[in-house]
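Minutes, project check-in
Item: structure for the 128-residue chain
Input as provided by the requester:
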Amino acid sequence: MFPDDVRYTKEHEWVRVEGDTCVVGITSFAAEQLGDVTYVELPESSDSFAQGDEIATVESVKAASDIYAPMSGTVLTVNSELEDKPELVNESSFGEGWFFKLDNIDVSQLDGLMDAAAYTTFVEEQDH
């Protein structure tokens, strides 16, 4: 249900490390809970964030939610396609619906994030 090549936060963000950078988005569970995503406010390229900082906002027909930096780093690029197609978050949360990429990351912070099995258990506990 959840990809094995990413790490997860308790706030339902995911991180995929690609070399010296990481790609960040929200999980399919989060997108499902939000309902139809209507708007995504992304950070500015070159802005730096510490792990846990508010970094973006996602709005849906149900609610608005803050997105937190799952790792410390500098925004390398954002998925500008979400400006015109926010529905990509619902359609492909682990693919085309990614939010931004971080550079200058501290890979040791991955140790504090959940793997797919732990996240699956976490979601099942949230659902009950």
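Outcome recorded: Residues 116-127 form the longest helix (12 residues).
No further action items on this chain.
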